[in-house]
């Protein structure tokens, strides 16, 4: 046998890709303490905290309008499955956090969807989970967006689709506002 055949099987690692945007990022440089160069390994039992306080938060945002601890992400394994996920918790008493239009107040938490946009103040963060098998740790990979994420990325539409499967947006422009009619005109 060769050393290649005897080598242990390498397991894949769950990676949380986070793409950051703020309209004043070029002037204020609030992301200067974040490491955009490489993936970082985080132990599964550690809570990834984002905020202004560098003594508590591993992911430091240099902005006085950001709370000392803005939010946290906790890696966990789903009950009765081998799947892993992330839970996001708002730790700011001053600022509400939204995750795909779901508003979280102080200490509210939800499961992080596999792809979502996290917003607070003027901050926009696109979070994308790349699933893996490892359960002892996960990785984070940070990116910087040049344009607003809400305009740049097309997330799945939350608008209902009619039963015929044809979206109204495929039809030529029609007047969308309601028209007032007199009941005698019918």
From TrEMBL:
Record bears the keyword Cytoplasm: yes
KW Lipid biosynthesis (keyword) present: no
UniProt keyword annotations, A-Z: Cytoplasm, Immunity, Innate immunity
InterPro entries documented for this protein: FHA_dom, SMAD_FHA_dom_sf, TIFA
Location in or out of the cell: Cytoplasm
Pfam families linked: FHA
Domain FHA: 49-121
Any one of the GO CC terms: cytoplasm
Entry's Gene Ontology BP terms: innate immune response; positive regulation of canonical NF-kappaB signal transduction
Principal place of residence: cytoplasm
Family classification: Belongs to the TIFA family.
Designated name of the protein: TRAF-interacting protein with FHA domain-containing protein A
This protein's encoding gene: Tifa
């Amino acid at each position: 046998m060769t050393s290649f055949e005897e080598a242990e099987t390498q397991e894949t690692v769950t990676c949380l890709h986070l793409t950051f945007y703020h309209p004043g990022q070029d002037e204020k440089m609030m992301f200067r303490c974040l490491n955009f160069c490489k993936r970082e390994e985080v132990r599964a039992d550690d809570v990834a905290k984002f905020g202004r306080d560098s003594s508590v938060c591993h992911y430091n945002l240099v902005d006085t309008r950001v709370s000392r601890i803005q939010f946290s992400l906790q890696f966990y394994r789903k009950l009765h499955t081998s799947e892993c996920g992330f839970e996001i918790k708002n730790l700011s008493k001053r600022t509400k956090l939204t995750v795909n239009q779901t508003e979280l107040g102080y200490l509210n938490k939800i499961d992080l969807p596999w792809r979502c946009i996290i917003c607070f103040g003027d901050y926009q963060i696109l979070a994308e989970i790349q699933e893996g098998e490892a359960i002892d740790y996960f990785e984070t990979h940070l990116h910087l967006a040049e344009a607003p994420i809400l305009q740049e990325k097309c997330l799945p539409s939350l608008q209902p689709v009619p039963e015929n499967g044809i979206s109204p947006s495929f039809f030529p422009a029609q007047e969308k506002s309601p028209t007032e009619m007199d009941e005698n005109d019918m």
